[in-house]
Write a structure and sequence with these properties.
Main location: membrane
Domain Gnk2-homologous: 20-120, 126-236
CATH class of the largest domain: Mainly Alpha
Number of domains: 4
Binding site for ATP: 368
Strand content: 15-25%
Structural class: alpha+beta
Low-confidence stretches: 1-18, 250-324, 545-549, 625-666
Distance between the termini: 56 Å
GO molecular function, one term: ATP binding
Shape: globular
Signal peptide: 1-20
Bound molecules: 2-acetamido-2-deoxy-beta-D-glucopyranose
Number of strands: 22
Length: 666
């Protein structure tokens, strides 16, 4: 009986793979009304997309608030005429699949069509992702199959993201040594071409993580709005593979070399009698590189003080570390900020004040004037700024440069015009953030932290993540600010114990607040609190002063364990996806677990957030922050909302450690 069912499913899947009908679709939550401007803009957009003679395009119709953004993408090996036929079907089908939806995506074998009322170009979106695995599993040599599949998809992923101009790659891998356990695997991967290479790579990594657990399936695919991949045990793509793994022969041959690994390629191909030649090539490369570096350093030193911001931004900052540093003249910054006038003051943050400035070329900047209590030497500080300037990610505020002159220590950031998250979120009158925007913010912060902790290889820890440190640009993209300041000031390694706890009450992980132990899991804790704030619209730190003295986390936990969690969702959210909210709360509760190891890493948080198929552990009751630190230790503040400094604590743990632990008998 079950075998029959499997056979049926298999037939269904196989036929679904080749019929030309829609594979899957996902519709947004909010609707437009018939006869609305939105509808006519949408119709116009679909007409434009249908008549576009290309395999990828984006277009926009209408003006705010009725703008419609659209995109289509055809599979890279599909000819233009088949592409057009697919898009024609898609524009027809999408209206009946998602009637009156303001947002929709439909996937076919040969193409993807997407539109939305939000500008989604160049950003990653994993919502509504679809997972398809053939129910039939391989039985022979499962381990070898999974290994080969991983290797194939790794190579296709990096080829798609970093080598292919169309962000599409195909590949075949075979292992035919033993006729019993032999097999051939074909695969492809593709990203929408509006993405950066890094985002494409990340999208495919997350998509593949969604596939975890089904690797033994004989075929499968993941469809996300931003990227997709597929593999089968038969050939299914047209043309020559970009990646070929032939494990039949003892030495791997790949065409072309998968990674941009220029030094290894000649060595790999060279046979023994070529060793000398290879060696001399390597030596000449080394000499050339050394020469180049020397020249670079020379020119950098000459130019560093003269550089203007405009010039720096024109460069694609991916060269030498030192090349990235932008040192600005103090006089330039004084003019830009009108001599740090009160009128230009944007706020008072941790470590100093922030001023808005405008450079001679019109570019707006934010200048952080650090209070100069740092014990670090100028060289050390310069190195730190160099490192921070390397951190470039859509969800991090960009550090443009610095200035270390005449006792002044200044950091120059890109200016983010919209306001900070706390301003928008906790303003009962003005909070107009809908669920889609909030979910995007939750996802954006997670990706920014993921980058900070893991992807950037800098293993930076923020240590003061909170709503007022999240800036929102005009697209409502979340940008984390003030990262790296703890690193600048604490002079710490990536993990350890510090005598100077920097953080904000309510967001601080217990092990950090109590013992000064920090690791990336300290940020994960703060992230959990932040997500709960975004969903409830309540500010965690307000809880500590309230009459009931009820703790924010225990308030959330109480409703969670009573099964009444939806009651605490921000009442200003009218339309939302219940499943998404429940999943976000669940993940947030995992992030605020007392034991750091129980908290997920940010990469798994990103994956859990976007793939409903990944199962979640059950959270246990989070550690109550109440009683952990007595409220008398908080700065007495009557006007809690007005100051960024509210509830900021700088605890000299080494002195007060004993009394703090005494307050929390175990
Ligand atoms: C378009 O849809 C029709 C009807 O569903 C189908 O027969 C045809 O194969 C589809 N064409 C493509 C290119 O998907
Ligand atoms: C939007 O329309 C769909 C189908 O017409 C309906 O099921 C859904 O409830 C509507 N959503 C809202 C928020 O009105
Ligand atoms: C589409 O473009 C291709 C080449 O760019 C061209 O050969 C083809 O004739 C065009 N088709 C239409 C219908 O314009
Ligand atoms: C959108 O489509 C219109 C009509 O085909 C075209 O004129 C315009 O250049 C397109 N815009 C973009 C941004 O591609
Ligand atoms: C294939 O493997 C998956 C994951 O291990 C399992 O859930 C599924 O039941 C298996 N399918 C069959 C038909 O055995
Ligand atoms: C290829 O197949 C042979 C024989 O089954 C096996 O020993 C080897 O591990 C396989 N290699 C891979 C990468 O699967
Ligand atoms: C194939 O190999 C498996 C073990 O990997 C073995 O159990 C099976 O009998 C073999 N089948 C044949 C036809 O050799
Ligand atoms: C893989 O290598 C084997 C052994 O050298 C060879 O017979 C086979 O043709 C190769 N396959 C491909 C597709 O190159």
């Amino acid at each position: 009986m079950t075998n029959l069912l499997h056979l049926f499913l298999l037939l269904l899947l196989r036929s679904g793979f080749s019929s030309g009908g829609p594979l899957y679709h996902t519709c947004g939550l909010s609707n437009y009304t018939s006869n609305s401007d939105y509808k006519s803009n949408l119709n116009q957009l679909l007409r434009i997309l249908t008549s576009t003679n290309s395999s990828f395009t984006t277009n926009t119709t209408g003006s705010t608030p009725n703008t419609v953004y659209g995109l289509f993408l055809c599979r890279g090996d599909v000819g233009l005429s088949n592409c057009r036929a697919c898009i024609q079907n898609a524009t027809k089908d999408i209206g009946s699949l998602c009637p009156s939806s303001k947002e929709a995506t439909v996937w076919y074998d040969n193409c993807e069509l997407r539109y939305s009322d939000l500008r989604f170009f160049s950003s990653l979106d994993y919502r509504g992702s679809y997972f398809l695995a053939n129910p039939k599993n391989v039985t022979n040599n499962v381990e070898g199959f999974i290994r080969l599949q991983k290797e194939l998809l790794d190579d296709i992923t990096s080829y798609t993201a970093y080598n292919s101009p169309t962000m599409f790659a195909t590949g075949t891998a075979m292992n035919e040594t033993n006729s019993n356990a032999s097999f051939t695997l074909s695969g492809l991967a593709q990203c929408t071409r509006d993405l950066s290479a890094e985002d494409c790579g990340q999208c495919l990594i997350v998509a593949r993580a969604m596939y975890t657990g089904s690797e033994a399936s004989t075929g499968g695919r993941i469809l996300t709005k931003s990227c997709n991949f597929r593999y089968e045990m038969y050939g299914f793509y047209q043309g020559k593979p970009d990646v070929l793994l032939n494990l039949t022969t003892p030495v791997k041959t790949r065409t072309p070399p998968p990674a941009p690994d220029t030094h290894e390629a000649p060595a790999r191909e060279g046979s023994k009698n070529n060793t000398k030649k290879v060696l001399s090539i390597i030596i000449s490369i080394v000499v050339a590189v050394m020469l180049l570096v020397t020249i670079c350093i020379y020119f950098w030193k000459k130019r560093a003080t003269k550089l203007t911001l405009g010039k720096h931004r024109a460069k694609s900052g991916k060269t030498n570390l030192e090349d990235d540093l932008l040192l600005l003249d103090l006089s330039t910054l004084k003019v830009a900020t009108d001599y740090f006038s009160e009128a230009n003051k944007l706020g008072e943050g941790g470590f100093g004040s922030v001023y808005k400035g405008k450079l001679a070329d019109g570019q707006e900047i934010a200048v952080k004037r650090l209070s100069t209590s740092s014990t670090q030497g100028v060289e050390e500080l310069k190195n730190e700024i160099l490192l921070l300037a390397k951190l470039q990610h859509r969800n991090l505020v960009k550090l443009l440069g610095g200035c270390l002159e005449e006792q002044e220590k200044l950091l120059v950031y890109e200016y983010v015009p919209n306001r900070s998250l706390d301003n928008l979120l906790f303003d009962p009158v003005e909070c107009k953030l809908n669920w889609s925007e909030r979910f995007n913010i939750i996802g954006g912060i997670a990706r920014g932290l993921f980058y900070l902790h893991e992807e950037s290889h800098l293993n930076a820890i923020h240590r003061d993540l909170k709503a007022s440190n999240i800036l929102l640009d005009t697209d409502m993209t979340a940008k984390i600010s003030d990262f790296g300041l703890a690193r600048l000031f604490g002079g710490d390694e990536t993990q350890g114990t510090t005598s100077r706890v920097v953080g904000t009450f309510g967001y601080m992980a217990p092990e950090y607040a109590l013992h000064g132990h920090f690791s990336t899991k300290v940020d994960v804790f703060s992230y959990g609190v932040l997500v709960l704030e975004i969903i409830t619209g309540k500010m965690c730190s307000r809880f500590y002063d309230s009459e009931r003295a009820e703790d924010f986390l225990s308030y959330v936990w109480e409703h969670w364990s009573n099964g009444q969690i939806l009651q605490i969702v921000d009442p200003s959210l009218e339309i939302f996806s219940k499943n998404e909210i429940l999943r976000c709360i669940h993940i947030a509760l995992l992030c605020v677990q007392e034991v750091p190891d129980e908290r997920p890493s940010m990469s798994s948080a990103v994956i859990m957030l976007h793939s409903p198929s990944v199962p979640l552990k059950s959270p246990t009751k989070p550690r109550f922050a109440r009683g952990m630190i007595s409220s008398s230790m908080l700065p007495k503040s009557t006007d809690m909302g007005s100051s960024d400094e509210f509830a900021r604590m700088v605890l000299p743990i080494s002195v007060n450690d004993v009394s703090i632990t005494e307050m929390q008998p175990r």
